[in-house]
Design brief:
The chain has 179 residues and is mostly helical. The protein is 64% helix and 7% strand. It contains 7 helices and 3 strands. The longest helix is centred in the middle third of the chain and has 32 residues, at 91-122. It is extended, with a radius of gyration of 22 Å.
C-alpha cells in the first residue's frame, strides 16, 4: 500500500479539494496541492494524473496555477528528463504566499478601482451616499491592504506569536480590554 492508498490520505485529498471550491479554487487544483503536500518525494505529472484520475491537461493547468501561487515548484530528478513537482511544506510560508497572491489578484485591483471612483465622485453630482460609501469602502480596503503590507514584513516567529495571542492582543492596546 502506498501513502496515497491510505484511507486517511484519500480523505485529506478529497476534503482539500472540497475546501478549495469554498475558497474559489478549482477542486482538482486543490487536490493536486494536497497530494504534493503529503508526498515525501517529488512527483511528475503522470504520477499525479494516475493517482488522482485526472486528465493530463487538467494537471498541467493546475500546476501552472499552483506555481503562480508559489506553493508548488518544479524540480528535476537526476536520471529523469520529466519535470517533477514538490509542494511548500512550511505552513506559515504557504499561508504568506497564498495571502500575497490573493492580495495581488483581488485586493490591489479593488483598491485601485475604488480610489479612481472616489476621485471621480469628488467632482460629480452623484448622490451623497454613493460618494460617501465608495469613499468609506476605499478607506476600509486600503486600511486592510496596508495592514497586510505591514504584517507580512514581521519576522515569522513574531507573526506566529501574534496569531497565537488572538484576542489577548487587545490587552496591549489602550482602551482595548474586553468589558
Amino acid at each position: 500500500m502506498t501513502l496515497f492508498d491510505h484511507p486517511d490520505a484519500k480523505a485529506f485529498i478529497l476534503h482539500w479539494g472540497e475546501m478549495g471550491t469554498q475558497w474559489g479554487v478549482n477542486r482538482s487544483v486543490a487536490q493536486i496541492h494536497a497530494l504534493l503536500y503529503l508526498s515525501d518525494r517529488p512527483l511528475h505529472a503522470e504520477q499525479i494524473t494516475d493517482t488522482l484520475g485526472l486528465a493530463r491537461s487538467n494537471v498541467s493547468t493546475a500546476m501552472k496555477e499552483l506555481q503562480g501561487y508559489q506553493i508548488v515548484r518544479r524540480v528535476h530528478v537526476e536520471g529523469d528528463r520529466r519535470d517533477h513537482f514538490v509542494a511548500e511544506i512550511d505552513l506559515w510560508e504557504m499561508l504568506l504566499r497564498i495571502a500575497a497572491e490573493r492580495k495581488r489578484r483581488e485586493i490591489d485591483p479593488t483598491i485601485q478601482l475604488l480610489g479612481e471612483l472616489a476621485e471621480r465622485l469628488k467632482q460629480d453630482t452623484a448622490p451623497p451616499q454613493l460618494r460617501e460609501r465608495i469613499g468609506r469602502m476605499h478607506e476600509f480596503i486600503g486600511t486592510l491592504g496596508g495592514w497586510y503590507d505591514q504584517v507580512r514584513l514581521l519576522p515569522k516567529p513574531t507573526l506566529v506569536a501574534l496569531m497565537k495571542l488572538g484576542g489577548k492582543v487587545a490587552r496591549l492596546i489602550p482602551g482595548g480590554k474586553k468589558k
